[in-house]
Write a structure and sequence with these properties.
The protein has 253 residues and is of the alpha+beta class. The chain has a five-stranded mixed β-sheet, with helices on both faces. The protein has a four-stranded mixed β-sheet with strand order 1-2-13-5. A two-stranded antiparallel sheet has the order 3-4. Helix 3 packs antiparallel against helix 4. The longest helix has 15 residues. The radius of gyration is 19 Å and the shape is globular. The two termini are 31 Å apart.
């Protein structure tokens, strides 16, 4: 592989990008009322990083919610923050085409190809922390915590039986999973674990670019029959991939 380019950003996060990623061709810049800023297409990679302080899935979700709820109060326009949040959800669900369409529609540019640094058409900078873009490779596995799918018991009235079409990221295979409409997503993760051996704590379900929370009933997810639910498997929890073609970041405590 080629040499790596390293830099420290203002948030004390270290970034290493391989020359293969750094040499992507730039797309047309977006006018910002001043000099044209270079804009690159969104990188189709899941950023891998390690948290200095290991986080549980529940703690990570709380940290993300806190950021998205408070970011518009400090700088930038709320509609741009909303677009960035939607784009990050789509990208985390591997729907990069949708994420790019959201950015283009909001006239948001990403000079380095990653959502960590973005600009609107007026030149205002928006910085999205790495913990909002992907799970850390050292996420803490929850067995009996409040956010663990194991806490969900079978409902007395399961509702209507439906078949979910799931696409598992680790194998890129489609699986048909029979569930009930009143099942919570957390319950369905346990059923998928029993069927395919994919640890429920390492699953993240996305539909239409949105992350499905563990406590949400399937009937409230508005999943259309025959449509695919993306199941992102956090395999790095067990297997740390040190490929130089992936971005590595360290989150400061």
């Amino acid at each position: 592989m080629g040499a790596c380019v390293c830099r420290m950003n203002p948030d004390n996060e270290t970034m290493s990008v391989s020359s293969a990623s750094a040499s992507r061709p730039a797309s047309a810049g977006i006018p910002m009322g001043g000099p044209t800023r270079k804009n690159r297409p969104l990188c189709h990679e899941t950023i891998k990083w390690r948290s200095d302080v290991p986080l549980t899935e529940g703690q990570l979700r709380s940290k993300r919610d806190e950021f998205w709820d408070t970011a518009p109060a400090f700088d930038g326009r709320k509609e741009i923050w909303d677009a960035l949040r939607a784009a990050t959800n789509a990208a985390e669900g591997l729907d990069f085409q949708m994420a790019q369409a959201i950015l283009d529609g909001a006239n948001v540019s990403v000079p380095n190809g990653y959502l960590t640094e973005c600009y609107d058409e007026l030149g205002t900078q928006y910085k999205v922390p790495i913990y909002c873009l992907s799970y850390p490779i050292n996420i803490v596995k929850e067995e009996n915590g409040r956010d663990s799918p194991a806490e969900y018991s079978e409902p007395v009235d399961g509702g209507t039986e439906i078949i979910l079409k799931l696409r598992i990221s680790s194998t890129m295979t489609d699986v048909k999973l029979p569930v009930y409409s009143k099942d919570a997503v957390g319950q369905c993760k346990k059923k998928l674990q029993a069927l395919e051996g994919v640890d429920a704590c390492c699953q993240r379900w996305f539909y239409s670019g949105k992350l499905l929370g563990d406590k949400v009933p399937i009937e409230e997810c508005s999943i259309h029959q025959g449509y695919v639910v993306q199941v992102i498997v956090n395999t790095e929890h067990y297997n740390h991939d040190n490929s130089t073609s992936i971005v590595h970041m360290s989150l400061a405590s």
